[in-house]
Each structure stands twice: as structure tokens, then as C-alpha cells.
Amino acid sequence: MKLSLPPGPLWMKNPYVHLGIGMIALSSLFAFSSHTAFRPVPDASLKTPTPVPSPTPWRLEPVPQTVNAVYLTGYSTGNSKKIKEIIDLADTTELNGVVIDIKDYAGKIFFQTNSTLIHSIGSEEIRIPDFKNLIATLHEHHIYVSARIAVFQDAHLSKVRPDLAIKNSQTGAIWKDRKGLSWVDPGSRDVWDYNLEVAREAIALGVDEINFDYVRFPSDGDMTVLSYPLYNPNALSKAEQMQKFFAYVHEVLGPMPVKTSVDLFGLATINEDDLGIGQIIEYAYPYFDYIAPMVYPSHYAKGFLGYQNPASYPYEVIFYSLEKAQVRRSKLDAVLSYVPSPTPENSTSTPLKAPDVSYIKTGLLPRNSKIAKLRPWLQVFDIGATYTPEMVRKQIQATLDTNNDSGWYLWNPSNIYNPVIFARE
């Protein structure tokens, strides 16, 4: 794999929350300031009178089409022992990627930025001391680096900018969900721009992908008293509001040298409604390189596919979910590229029609757009069943058996990954 050099400047949390919030919702029934142009300060180390080739790699080239990655918290990423463990696995197995927390549900940013906006918010909490050098080291071992950003669940921004926070309509206080976590308004352009500023800072350091999580409305807590400072439910559905955010992400990051992915609830692969949180998979497909459904078998309700405990059937649950998602992907692709054929006069043949996706407003979506591929999150934690390496391999096999060659992400909030999981190379 070729590694290219930089051409110049480019312009733990509590990890159980990721799976905990989804489980609460599913158990219920699935249940900055101003719009200032952002110009990050260039890396001073790159500003030399005479360009000198950097001794360290910049970006992976070519970017691998199949990425098999594991999730790492900010704490793990800043731990040299854990990084060595991951590098050793990548050097000897099919593992070739990491998904690193750079902004968590609490709104803390784990690497040093050059952004005046981010500094003004005071959200940096450095857990990755030299992110740029770490990325270079991972690239030397052909490891793809995805940077994960939790977007609309953001306790810090809610505190610093309460005007952007979702409120309790009865008390006027900042609204909190069942876990006591606060959210910012998904309809706020300031919130969008702030998170994209975090993305730009990471891109400037050489990450290969930006992964967006918590791109949704709240799923639990007292939903009857939600008050949004900007989002107007009478003007847009939750799903339509999310579609606008997705389109904005594509507009801003599309021209940049980075891949994008978005995390959706596992049931978004199956349900045609928005799950009450604004997630309809068709509204995300045209705007990202990869859709990452969190198809954790333990998150599916008792009785799903007739199984008393879906967590005990990882292959079946994931195969069904991803197969549904692939069908929906193909249908949407056909709809967005459909051109009605003229019917000859006196013809008795029935003209071909575009597939039915009447549960969405296709007019909101760009025609002839590139449709995202699937790269699912798979379960490596013991909820619902003991997830042995064999159970994890069943999920990987289900992913492969649904004509998915884009790879997978493994989620274990403790960041412990048994080497037996990974095929040797």
C-alpha cells in the first residue's frame, strides 16, 4: 500500500452510552457563536520557506475498500500499550482500521486543535497527546483511521451555549434524558458548523474518515416536554430535519480528502418510519460514503424473527437486517436514477416503473447521486448472551454473506478484542 506525503496545509467518555441509549429506545418498541467562516490555523510545522518532504506518512493511498476496524475510546487511543496491541493485530491479521473517539457524548474533544471556535467553547480535554503523529504511526502499519464525533448529544455545548440546548418546556431548564444527559438542537446551524469544525481539524491531521454518531433526536426520557430553540416540528418532520443535516455534511466535507460514515440504529435497516428519532436510512444513503447500522443482536426486541432471545442468533439477525438494507439501497438507487421511457403509440406493454418508496419524499434527495455502501457495527460485548469470538465471527460471516465487501466495525465499550476474532494473514 502506497503512502503519500502531505502537500501542505489542508485549508473516556463513558463508552457504554453508545449502546445504552439505543437499548432504552429499543426496549420501548424498537423503544456559535455566529455563522463565522471557519479558517483553522495551519500547522506551523508545515510552513517552511523551502518544502521539505515529511519523513512520516500522511494519508493512506489508495484508501482500502474493505475496512475491518475496532472502536477505541480517547483514553485507549492515548495509551501506548493499547496502540501497540492494535498495531500488532493489524500486522498479523485482517484488522486494518480503528474508529477513534475524538468528540464524545459529553462534548469533550480529545485532541489539540487550532480552532478559535473550539477554544472559545472550552471543549478540549486532551487524551490523545499527539494525534497527528499517532495517525502517521498507524498509517505506517497500513491502518485506516476513522474519527468518531458524537453530534447532537453534547453536555458541554449545552452548558456553554444553553441557547442551543433542548429545553424542558415546563421549567425552562435544560432537558435531560433518562441517563441525565443533555442534547443540543438538531435544527441549529451553529451546532452543525461546530461539529464540522471538529471534523475539519481532524482532517487536517490526516484522518481517513469522519464517523458521525448521535445524529438523531432523543429517544428516551420525558418526551412530552421537549422544547427546541430552532427546530420547528410543524415545518419539518424529524426525518426531514436529519436529511437537511446530512445534506449539509455532504456539502461541506464532500470536496475534502476524507471518507464519511454515519451511525444509525439497527432497526433503521428494517423500519420504514423514523423510529421516533429522525432516522430513515434512505435519507442518509445519498450523502455519505458508508452507512454504519448498529445491528447489535442484543438490541432487538424479544420475538424478533420469532426468536425468544435475538442475541443468541447473531448470524440470523444481522443477515436479515443487512439484506433488508441492501434491498432498500438498490431500490433507492433505481428511484434516483429512474428516467421514464416514452411508451410507443398503440403499445400494449406496461411501461417500467420506479420502485415504490412512498414512505419518503424522494424530491428532497439528489438525483443520480452515489449511494453509500454498508459497513455495520457488530457486537463484541456480553449483553443478552456471551459474545465469544465464535459469536463475533458469525456476525462477520453474515456481513459477508449479504454481498458486503466494505468491511465492518467492532464495538466493545471496554476496547478488549480477543485476537482469535480476527482471521490471520
Please explain how this structure is put together.
The protein has 425 residues and is α/β, with parallel strands linked by helices. It has one domain: TIM Barrel (Alpha-Beta Barrel), CATH 3.20.20.80. Helices cover 28% and strands 13% of the residues. It has ten helices and 13 strands. The strands form three sheets. Strands 11-10-9-7-5-4-3-13-12 form a nine-stranded parallel sheet. Helix 9 packs parallel to helix 10. The relative contact order is 0.14.
Question: How far do the termini sit from each other?
Answer: 15 Å
- Helices and strands: which structural class? alpha/beta
The CATH superfamily name is: Glycosidases
The dominant shape is: globular
Strand content: 5-15%
The helix content is 25-40%
**Total of domains:** 1
Helical segment count? 10
**Biggest sheet strand line-up:** 11-10-9-7-5-4-3-13-12
Give the low-confidence spans: 1-17, 19-57
- Mean model confidence by pLDDT: 88
> Main beta sheet, described?
9 strands, parallel
SSE string, helices as H and strands as E: EHEEHHEHHEHEHEEHEEHEEHE
How many E strands? 13
Write the CATH architecture name.
Answer: Alpha-Beta Barrel
Rg (C-alpha, Å): 22 Å
Topology:
Elements lengths: L1 E3 L12 H12 L30 E3 L5 E6 L1 H4 L2 H13 L4 E7 L12 H6 L9 H10 L3 E7 L4 H6 L6 E2 L20 H16 L4 E5 L12 E2 L10 H16 L5 E7 L24 E5 L19 H23 L36 E2 L2 E3 L9 H12 L6 E5 L14
Helix pairs in contact: 9-10
